[in-house]
C-alpha cells in the first residue's frame, strides 16, 4: 500500500502515523544540473528514532539528495525539512543536533586526530571528550596520529568518532564504509549498531554494502535515475518482491506478460522470476504454461535490489506499472 503523496512504486505506511514526529521530511525535492535532472520530485519522511537506508546505483542521486537535506546544496524545486525547519535555513541550535559523515572522509591530511577534535569541539555544545577517547581506544587510534598516515578505514573511523562525540540527535552518513576492508567495515558497523541502541538516534545513511543495510535499517528508500522508486520498511520490501524458481518440462515459454514481473533470468528449461505481489494467481498462471516445479526462494536484500534495479529507465516504466 502506498503512502498518499509519495511518487513511489513500492511504498508503505508508518506505524502510528498520526502521532509520529518527523526528523526528516522532503516534498517533491528536485535538483537540476544545467539540463540534467539529478533528483526528480523526491518525497519521503523519516520519523525520529528511525534508521533509514537510502539506496541506489551509482549516479542515482543519493549524494545530491543528502546535500540538499543538509542545506549544502539548494534545490531547484521542492523542499527539505529537518526537525520541522527548512534545510537551507537551519539555525545554529538545530545544526548543533546534526552529525554528518561525508563520502570519502575528507579530513585535513596535515592535521592530527587531536587537532581535528579541538577544531570540531568549538562548534558543538554537547561535545563529549570521554566518548571520543573511548571510540579512539575502540578503534586502536592515537590522538597524535596524523590523517595522512591513516588508511581509508582508519579515516572512516576518525570521521565516525568525531561525529558521534558531538552527540547528534540526527546522524547522516553518505556511504561511510566505501573503500573500507571487510574487517574494519564490520567493526564500524558494530559501533554504529551500539550507538543506535544506546540513544535511539535517527540515522539516515547510504551504502553500497546491502548486507550492512539489512542488519540495521528499519526503512529503505531506493533511488533510480533520480526518482524514489521504493519507500517502505525492509520487511515490506522483502514481502512484496519474491524470487521464484520455475522448472519446465520443455523450453521456457514466453513469460514477459506475467502480472507483476520485475525481472527474469532464463536458461533452457528453468527461469528465476522476480515478481511483485506474488500470490496463488501467479502459480496458477505458471502451471497453465507448463511449469513442473515452482519454488519460492529465500532472498537477501541484495538479491532483490539487483533485480529491481536491473535495466535502464525504459524497463523501469514496465516495472513501475507492475508494482503499483
Distinctive features:
alpha/beta; Rossmann fold; Alpha-Beta Plaits; seven-stranded mixed β-sheet; five-stranded antiparallel β-sheet; 16 strands; elongated
What can you see in these coordinates?
There is one protein chain. The chain is α/β, with parallel strands linked by helices and about 325 residues long. The chain contains 11 helices and 16 strands. The strands form 3 sheets. The chain has a 7-stranded mixed β-sheet with strand order 1-12-11-5-10-9-8, with helices on both faces. Strand 2 and strand 3 (about 35-40) form a beta hairpin. The relative contact order is 0.14.
Per-chain topology:
Layout: E1 10-11, E2 22-33, E3 36-42, E4 45-47, E5 51-55, H1 62-69, E6 77-82, E7 85-86, H2 92-95, E8 98-101, H3 113-121, H4 129-139, H5 152-164, E9 170-174, H6 182-199, E10 202-206, H7 210-216, E11 219-224, E12 227-233, H8 234-240, E13 241-248, E14 261-266, E15 270-276, H9 280-288, E16 291-297, H10 301-308, H11 313-323
Parallel strand pairs: 1-12, 5-10, 5-11, 8-9, 9-10
Antiparallel strand pairs: 2-3, 2-4, 2-6, 6-7, 11-12, 13-15, 13-16, 14-15
The strand order across the widest sheet is: 1-12-11-5-10-9-8
Mean pLDDT: 84
Strand element count: 16
CATH topology of the largest domain: Rossmann fold
Query: Can you write the helix and strand succession as a string?
Result: EEEEEHEEHEHHHEHEHEEHEEEHEHH
Give the class from helix and strand content and strand pairing. alpha/beta
Helix tally equals 11
CATH superfamily of the largest domain: P-loop containing nucleotide triphosphate hydrolases
Q: What's the N-to-C terminus distance?
A: 9 Å
Radius of gyration: 22 Å
Q: What are the segments in which pLDDT stays under 50 over at least 5 consecutive residues?
A: 1-8, 312-324
Beta-strand residue percentage: 25-35%
Q: Tell me what the CATH architecture of the largest domain is.
A: 3-Layer(aba) Sandwich
| Fraction in helix | 25-40%
What is the oligomeric state here? single chain
What is the global morphology? Answer: elongated
Summed up, the domain count is: 2
Q: In CATH's first tier, which class of the largest domain applies?
A: Alpha Beta
Amino acid at each position: 500500500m502506498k503512502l498518499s503523496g509519495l511518487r513511489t512504486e513500492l511504498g508503505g505506511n508508518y506505524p502510528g502515523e498520526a502521532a509520529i514526529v518527523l526528523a526528516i521530511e522532503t516534498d517533491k525535492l528536485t535538483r537540476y544540473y544545467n539540463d540534467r535532472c539529478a533528483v526528480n520530485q523526491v518525497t519521503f519522511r523519516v520519523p525520529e528514532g528511525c534508521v533509514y537506508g537510502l539506496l541506489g546505483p551509482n549516479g542515482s542521486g543519493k549524494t545530491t539528495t543528502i546535500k540538499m537535506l543538509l542545506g549544502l546544496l539548494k534545490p531547484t524545486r521542492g523542499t527539505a525539512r529537518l526537525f520541522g525547519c527548512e534545510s537551507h535555513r537551519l539555525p545554529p541550535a538545530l545544526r548543533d543536533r546534526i552529525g554528518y559523515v561525508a563520502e570519502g572522509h575528507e579530513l585535513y591530511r596535515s592535521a592530527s586526530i587531536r587537532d581535528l577534535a579541538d577544531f570540531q569541539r568549538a562548534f558543538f555544545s554537547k561535545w563529549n571528550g570521554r566518548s571520543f577517547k573511548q571510540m579512539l581506544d575502540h578503534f586502536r587510534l592515537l590522538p597524535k596520529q596524523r590523517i595522512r598516515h591513516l588508511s581509508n578505514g582508519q579515516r572512516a573511523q576518525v570521521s565516525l568518532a568525531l561525529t558521534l562525540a558531538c552527540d547528534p540527535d540526527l546522524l547522516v552518513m553518505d556511504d561511510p564504509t566505501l573503500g573500507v576492508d571487510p574487517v574494519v567495515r564490520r567493526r564500524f558497523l558494530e559501533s554504529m549498531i551500539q550507538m543506535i541502541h544506546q540513544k535511539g538516534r535517527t540515522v539516515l545513511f547510504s551504502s553500497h554494502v546491502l548486507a550492512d543495510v539489512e542488519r540495521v535499517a528499519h526503512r529503505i528508500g531506493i533511488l533510480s535515475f533520480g526518482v524514489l522508486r521504493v519507500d517502505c520498511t525492509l520487511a515490506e520490501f522483502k514481502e512484496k518482491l519474491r524470487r521464484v524458481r520455475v522448472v519446465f518440462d520443455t523450453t521456457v515459454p514466453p513469460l514477459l506478460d506475467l502480472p507483476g514481473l520485475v525481472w527474469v533470468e532464463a536458461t533452457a528449461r528453468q527461469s528465476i522470476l522476480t515478481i511483485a505481489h506474488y500470490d496463488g494467481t501467479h502459480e496458477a498462471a505458471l502451471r497453465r504454461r507448463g511449469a513442473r516445479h515452482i519454488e519460492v526462494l529465500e532472498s537477501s536484500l541484495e538479491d532483490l535490489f539487483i533485480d529491481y534495479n536491473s535495466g535502464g529507465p525504459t524497463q523501469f516504466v514496465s516495472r513501475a506499472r507492475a508494482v503499483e
